[in-house]
Write a structure and sequence with these properties.
Structural class: alpha/beta
Strand content: 15-25%
Number of strands: 5
CATH superfamily: Carbonic anhydrase
Strand order of the largest sheet: 2-1-3-4-5
CATH topology: Beta-carbonic Anhydrase, Chain A
Number of domains: 1
Largest sheet: 5 strands, mixed
Oligomer: single chain
Bound molecules: zinc ion
Distance between the termini: 43 Å
Helix content: 25-40%
Length: 148
């Protein structure tokens, strides 16, 4: 297979988007990033639990921090997006919250904010955008909620 390479001689992009590996959410995450956040070029590392992986880092050389560090240092991104999602297996899934969807959302919001603190400490000049991919309509739809 041969396909067009759109970035000849381009070494910078707008953002890094860190999401969970979960097959149920990443395609929709792309849609959210491109259509709602209007970000066209971005690194897209995926690691189980997204914010969880950042929060568990012991030092800067750990892989999750590198997923942010390489885009910042090599691709000069201005924005860092972190997306957590509902029913995330890395956190024990929705079962962990015994069906309390609000408690689950609050928990993910605090996880995302914790990850932001950690990232801002190293990259204070970057804009950090947090989002939670929530299941709505009885689990038939995904809604991306910005976490401020
Ligand atoms: Zn997940």
């Amino acid at each position: 297979m041969k396909t067009e390479f759109k970035y000849k001689n381009v070494h910078s992009c707008e953002a890094v988007v860190l999401a969970c590996i979960d097959f149920r959410f990443w395609k929709e995450t792309i849609k959210f990033v491109e259509e709602e956040l209007e970000i066209e070029s971005y690194d897209f590392p995926k690691i189980p639990g997204a914010a969880k992986a950042i929060n568990e880092c012991q030092n800067e050389g750990d892989v999750p921090m590198k997923c942010i560090g390489v885009p910042c240092d090599l691709h000069h991104v201005a924005r860092i997006v972190i997306v957590n999602h509902a029913d995330c297996g890395a956190y024990g899934g929705s079962a962990e919250f015994k069906g309390d969807l609000e408690a689950e959302q609050r928990f993910h919001e605090s996880e995302l904010k914790k990850a932001k603190e950690k990232i801002i400490a190293k990259y204070p000049e970057k804009e950090v955008i947090l989002a939670f991919a929530k299941l709505v309509d009885g689990g038939e739809s995904i809604e991306f909620v910005r976490v401020i």
